[in-house]
Amino acid sequence: xxxxxxxxxxxxxxxxxxxxxxxxxxxxxxxxxxxxxxxxxxxxxxxxxxxxxxxxxxxxxxxxxxxxxxxxxxxxxxxxxxxxxxxxxxxxxxxxxxxxxxxxxxxxxxxxxxxxxxxxxxxxxxxxxxxxxxxxxxxxxxxxxxxxxxxxxxxxxxxxx
Length: 161
What we know:
Blueprint: H1 5-24, H2 32-42, H3 51-67, H4 73-90, H5 97-123, H6 130-160
């Protein structure tokens, strides 16, 4: 997806809206950061877009400040799924939706294990929250419909160009 100036404004407006929505409705079972990562992973980005990672990291820091999270937590998740999207796109896996789904679920599992491992290392606490696991499962369930909507819109816009 090549972004013009209007595209950058729309991307930043979307991120601002979603982060504000996350700030207003902060649920335990619905992790809006991970839902936003579905959008970042599902979009086929242009390889020459070098401003997008900078914007994603800045918006992640903004979200962390708003929500009172550890600094760079959201930005790291955003960049992780952006880079994962680039890797699947470069390796030709972007059009194969089943493999793309497996990669996404594996990435979520790695993120879940890494997060719990950091809690264990930093606080010596065996922490396995059922609500956090449920939030990850909800994101896995939301992936197929959101991904199909995004892929459909991108294919429709490619035909117009």
